[in-house]
Design brief:
By secondary structure, the protein is of the alpha+beta class. It folds into three domains: about 1-40 and about 65-305, Beta Barrel (Thrombin, subunit H); about 305-400, Roll (Pdz3 Domain); about 410-500, Pdz3 Domain. It contains eleven helices and 31 strands. Strand 12 and strand 13 form a beta hairpin. The chain is flat.
């Protein structure tokens, strides 16, 4: 049996970087529904009785044919092509050829990747220059654009092309790895924008339209229906995805998903595929989730999300019988983090969370998104079943801690200067390593990778200044000249690594 895979819809190798997420709700007015044409009834039905009920038959349900041409004409100019340049770690494979990492030359999409995403060689044995393409859409006339975080992560340069062929260099205002949302900005005015809708009102079977740049073909429109809502994917626990069967391919990432009213209800983000191309399963980030992230990134430079501090699992029939549940619903608490928010509120393993803040927890996958949407410090109400009896608990929501270096920096700050993603060491990790302070390198690229910095290294100081916080490292790098010396602990040895920042 083939292993199921989810692949990001960007046209090239992924570019490593780590950034930060949160939620909000938007319901903006849209335009009128697009013109619809009825399906023609078969000729054999022309002589059917005028009153079907009288003839003992049931009138068939006739669905309209969606015409998206008005939406494409009006809002297509607000959809942009995004091209990025950055470094990615080379991942050679035995069954692939150099120049198109991870893709079999016999794959039908091999030529597309060669044409639109071929990496530039000659930048070292471990890293290579990669050019890739994605999509985005303008949400403010002054050039504020939404796209996917994986489109711009690690990019040294981001270029935006409009449908009128104008091109602009973009700044990355922020990105959130957890929700895969990024905000970029170009210096322009009076730009066309999209209208935002309410994804909570969409229904399964509703027609939808995707516009993007699949394989570099700019402003391509594809249509389909909503296949499901509130989908939870294995690697994305904070996003209730909208599933569609609209044709979404590499390069569509970051493009908008429209409803019949011409309103954007989601950002196309992922596809399910065994080949890398369209197979009828695409997933979009609801626009209310994306705008919540965008607002925090633009106004605060970072994103905060709530934390409960529990491990949960799905409730199946056997567990429902065991815990006295009348319905298969809720999130079963399998573990509680010591001294975490849930523990302080009295939550116990074996509790089944049925509602949070009055909102049903239908499946265990609903709970993480609900918790993440709450502001840290919020006192939330949990309705649980314990020993077959209902119980209400009040919990003070904690804050989910991200382990990123920069929340609101430019691509040059992240990649062109030092190029590392770091996190603070936990007290137990410091004791095991025999150090005080220091930052663990989780990913390295750019200048740091060229100098030999590796994931797993612990940065102890920069130019003799001890480092214990990511913000401290960021400040020192910004103030540094062209060269710095990092004191690094690697395994049991400490070494100075000279880094040319440029």
């Amino acid at each position: 049996m083939h292993r199921k895979t989810l692949r990001r819809g960007i046209l090239a190798a992924s570019i490593a970087a780590i950034l930060a997420g949160g939620y909000a709700h938007f319901n903006l007015p849209g335009i009128r529904a697009a013109h619809a044409l009825p399906l023609l009834a078969p000729a054999t039905q022309a002589s059917a009785p005028a009153n079907p009920a009288a003839a003992g038959t049931v009138a068939p349900v006739i669905a309209p044919v969606a015409d998206f041409s008005t939406i494409v004409a009006r809002y297509g100019p607000a959809v942009v092509n995004i091209s990025v340049t950055g470094e990615a770690e080379q991942q050679p494979a035995a069954d692939t050829q150099p120049g198109v990492p991870g893709l079999d030359p016999n794959d039908p999409f091999y030529d597309f990747f060669r044409r639109f995403g071929i990496p530039q060689q000659g930048r070292g044995q471990d890293h290579q220059l990669v050019r890739a393409e994605g999509s985005g859409f303008i949400v403010r006339p002054d050039g504020l654009i939404l796209t996917n975080a994986h489109v711009v992560n690690g990019a040294q340069e981001v270029m935006v092309k409009l449908t009128d062929r104008r091109e602009f260099k973009a700044r990355v205002l922020g990105a959130d790895k957890q929700t895969d949302v990024a905000v970029i900005k170009i210096d322009a005015s009076n730009l066309p924008t999209v209208q935002l809708g309410d994804p909570d009102t969409i229904r399964v079977g509703e027609p939808v339209l995707a516009i993007g740049s699949p394989y570099g073909f700019e402003n391509s429109a594809t249509a389909g229906i909503v296949s499901a809502t509130s989908r939870s994917l294995p690697d994305d626990t904070y996003v209730p995805f909208i599933q569609t069967d609209a044709a979404v391919n590499p390069g569509n990432s970051g493009g908008p998903l429209f409803n019949l009213k011409g309103q954007v209800i989601g950002i196309n983000s992922q596809i399910y595929s065994r080949t890398g191309g369209y197979q009828g399963l695409a997933f979009a980030i609801p626009i209310n989730v994306a705008m919540g992230v965008s607002d925090q990134l633009v106004h605060g430079g970072k994103v905060t999300r709530g934390r409960l501090g529990v491990g949960i699992q799905e409730v199946n029939q056997a567990l429902a019988d065991s815990f006295g549940l009348k319905q298969l619903q809720g999130a079963l608490v399998s573990s509680v983090e010591p001294d975490g928010p849930a523990a302080r509120a009295g939550l116990q393993p074996g509790d089944v969370i049925l509602r949070m803040q009055g909102k049903d927890v239908a499946r265990s996958s609903d709970l993480p998104a609900q918790v993440a949407a709450l502001k840290p410090g919020t006192v939330a109400t949990l309705e649980v079943i314990r020993d077959g009896k209902p119980k209400t608990l009040a919990v003070t929501i904690g804050e989910f801690k991200d382990t990123t270096l920069a929340k609101n920096s430019t691509p040059q700050d992240r990649q062109g200067r030092l190029g590392v993603a770091v996190r603070q060491l936990a007290p137990e990790e410091q004791r095991q390593a025999g150090i005080s302070g220091g930052l663990l390198v989780e990913a390295a690229g750019g200048a740091a990778a060229k100098a030999g910095i590796q994931p797993g290294d612990v940065i102890l100081s920069l130019n003799g200044t001890p480092i214990s916080k990511p913000e401290q490292l960021q400040t020192l790098v910004k103030k540094a000249g062209k060269h710095v010396a990092l004191l690094v602990q690697r395994d049991d040895a400490r070494i100075f690594v000279p880094v040319e920042l440029g």
